[in-house]
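Tokens as discussed.
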């Protein structure tokens, strides 16, 4: 067995359907820990403190990273790689421009931190390699960069929304 995004999604789906309070799955160097209790004894022992940020699943708010000391929404999910179940179908995609896709399932963030200015806005010029968003996968922040110079023509995902692997999240017009 390998800890692929599909395997993790299946494990999270099974956990959501169960009445379990907590689940820990270890495969090789990968570990998936999911708890309905954000201050579970396992989580506190493993990390020495309450989690500073959480990933939203069913019942979670999807509101974004939470400051230390704030009560996080349920459930809490941690792993070295992972998936977050989608909360909405992908938005309709415009045809013109270079489509920038999500590198994995996770949560879409427009800014580097809560309250910070977004990386990009519609109509803004971007350079190839410039960060346009973050996709968070189990507390790992994956910066998503524009592959081309151009103008942002669309941001197709709401801040904090779940995204799927390969889902178009931003469109850049290289001719703009």
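Sequence:
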């Amino acid at each position: 067995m390998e800890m692929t995004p599909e395997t993790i999604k299946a494990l999270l789906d099974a956990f959501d359907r169960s009445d379990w309070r907590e689940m820990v799955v270890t495969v090789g160097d990968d570990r998936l820990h999911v708890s309905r209790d954000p201050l579970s004894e396992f989580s506190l022992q493993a990390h020495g403190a309450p989690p500073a940020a959480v990933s939203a699943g069913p019942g979670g708010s999807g509101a974004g990273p939470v400051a230390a000391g704030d009560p996080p929404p349920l459930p809490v999910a941690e792993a070295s790689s992972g998936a977050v179940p989608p909360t909405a179908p992908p938005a309709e995609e415009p045809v013109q421009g270079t489509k920038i896709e999500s590198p994995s399932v996770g949560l879409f963030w427009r800014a580097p931190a809560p309250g910070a200015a977004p990386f990009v806005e519609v109509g803004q010029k971007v350079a190839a390699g410039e960060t346009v968003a973050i996709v968070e996968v189990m507390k790992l922040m994956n910066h998503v960069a524009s592959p081309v110079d151009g103008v942002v023509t669309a941001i197709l995902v709401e801040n904090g929304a779940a995204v799927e692997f390969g889902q178009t999240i931003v469109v850049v017009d290289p001719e703009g």
